[in-house]
Write a structure and sequence with these properties.
Layout: E1 2-4, H1 10-17, H2 21-27, E2 29-33, H3 35-43, E3 50-53, H4 63-72, E4 76-80, H5 82-88, E5 97-102, E6 118-123, H6 128-140, E7 145-149, H7 158-164, E8 173-176, H8 179-188, E9 192-196, E10 202-203, E11 213-218, H9 226-231, E12 234-237, H10 249-264
Helix pairs in contact: 3-4, 6-7, 6-10
Length: about 270
């Protein structure tokens, strides 16, 4: 264990940088914070570069046991003061521990394939809470992989990571730099593209999800882009008999995903 007492320490300065997306992109690293998500990372065999904690961890449930697990797995651990920790913490009520992980980057050729594959594609989602919640819902629904188009909020935004509640470690997530390339890949692999749209004729429960399928959900304000609309094999909508104009994107995604689950469990 290494002690850190200065705000000028290189580790502290580096973690402060990682609060900004450009540095997360530059270093290809991100931060997770809290006992539960660190335990999830360990359980799912994530590579942890190092962890930083303060004495507040000893007051958190499971804190001392987590330190033992980190030591058993050979993770480098730094100890700092509660004051310094507060300067780098992202949460309002920190539990006193965080860790730095390398980003995992994959190409489409690594997309897991099986009979009746089940994917979700998120097109330019802007809110980190929405992105994290959809990832968590997709995980619970048994989705095989998630694809994110260029223009989505950063997957490694601390708010996104917190909203996933550990699901970020449970399924592969792919970044699509080029939507046309993604469309070609899906078409070439006979994966049916089902796109949500307020202008659809069919309701979400009127289409068949019992095949290789990707469900496309779009931007909070503007919906799915014309690129993905034009590529869709079918457009679907959720009935809204009330006066609200639309649903929150994470709610809409949940409704469509669980209709797919219902059908696929038959």
């Amino acid at each position: 264990m290494v002690e850190i007492f200065s705000a000028e320490n290189a580790v502290i300065k580096h973690i402060k940088q990682l609060s900004r997306r450009k540095y997360r992109d530059k270093h290809k690293e991100y931060m997770i914070e809290g006992v539960r998500i660190l335990c999830d990372a360990l359980e799912n065999r994530q590579r942890i570069k190092y962890a930083v904690f303060c004495d507040a961890l000893y007051r958190a449930a499971g804190g001392e046991n987590l330190l033992k697990q980190l030591a058993e797995q050979g993770v480098k651990v730094y100890h700092t003061t509660e004051k310094l920790y507060g300067e780098i913490a992202e949460t309002e009520s920190p539990q006193g521990i965080m860790a730095i992980l390398p980003r995992i980057e994959m190409c489409l050729e690594q997309l897991p394939k099986k009979k009746n594959s089940f994917y979700v594609l998120l097109d330019r989602i802007q809110d980190p809470g929405n992105l994290g919640t959809i990832i968590r819902t997709a995980d619970s629904a048994g989705v095989d992989a998630i694809l994110l188009t260029k223009g989505c909020v950063d997957l490694y935004n601390p708010k996104t990571i917190r909203a996933t509640m550990g699901s970020i470690f449970h399924l592969p997530i792919f970044m699509l730099e080029d939507s046309q390339e993604g469309i070609s890949f899906l078409k070439n692999n006979q994966i049916k593209i089902l796109t949500t749209s307020l202008d659809a004729v069919s309701y979400h429960y009127e289409v068949d999800y019992r095949q290789d399928v990707v469900i496309v959900v779009g931007n909070e304000a503007n919906g799915v882009s014309s690129t993905w609309m034009d590529a869709a094999d079918a457009l679907v909508k959720i009935p809204i008999p009330g006066k609200a104009e639309s649903l929150n994107v994470s709610v809409a995604a949940s409704i469509v995903l669980y209709e797919a689950v219902r059908q696929r469990m038959r």
